[in-house]
Design a protein that fits this description.
single chain, mainly alpha
Length: about 190
């Protein structure tokens, strides 16, 4: 198994691990919630670190901003997880504020992620387009939620959740498009000359 195949499997597994934070809603244990959030935050950062070398040959600036936004997203998740253990109401309010901001950071990072996946052709383009549209719907959901204009805007989160879970399985089962990997390697070799 080559390193790109291993990377695809690891990224797919990390996406599933990052979404494990959703399972924390079924527990009353603050320690469990904190662990889910911290592990999820670390997974988000690792996904960006693993994808950066694959994205960089296609668009270095977008790749840079992708890793910046994902790192901020993961860092916010880790901080929010730690704050969840607090008994101080002010710190818990800060945690709630972090998650409001987190929604936008996640959406912007997702836009970069799916743009780079589309540009690199590492996965089928329809899957990248689905993710990009889902990220736009996520921004809309965040705006509707913060303004309170339309109740039930949380349904707009569903497309990104389904897309990322499908993407995770795709990466574990199918991996990246080998010809896109070869093309990216060729671009890197040309840039070195």
């Amino acid at each position: 198994m080559d390193s790109n195949r291993k990377t695809a499997i690891i990224v797919g597994a990390l996406i599933l691990i990052a979404y494990s934070v959703l399972a924390s809603s079924i527990t009353e244990s603050k320690i469990t919630v904190m662990l889910f959030e911290v592990i999820s935050g670390v997974a988000v950062i690792l996904i960006a670190v693993l994808m950066f070398p694959l994205f960089k040959p296609y668009n270095e600036k977008a790749s840079f901003w992708y890793i910046v936004f994902r790192s901020i997203e993961g860092g916010l998740m880790i901080i929010a997880g730690i704050l969840f253990l607090s008994r101080n109401n002010l710190l818990l309010e800060i945690r709630d504020g972090i998650y409001v901001g987190h929604g936008y950071i996640f959406a912007v990072a997702a836009l970069f992620f799916y743009y780079l996946l589309y540009q690199s052709k590492l996965i089928p383009r329809w899957l990248s387009v689905w993710g990009f549209i889902a990220a736009i719907l996520l921004i809309l959901a965040n705006l509707l939620e913060i303004t309170g204009l339309i109740p039930g805007s949380m349904i707009l989160y569903l497309p990104i959740i389904l897309n990322e879970l499908f993407l995770a399985v795709w990466l574990i089962v199918k991996g990246f498009n080998p010809s896109a990997i070869a093309s990216g390697s060729a671009k890197t070799d040309i840039n070195k000359v």
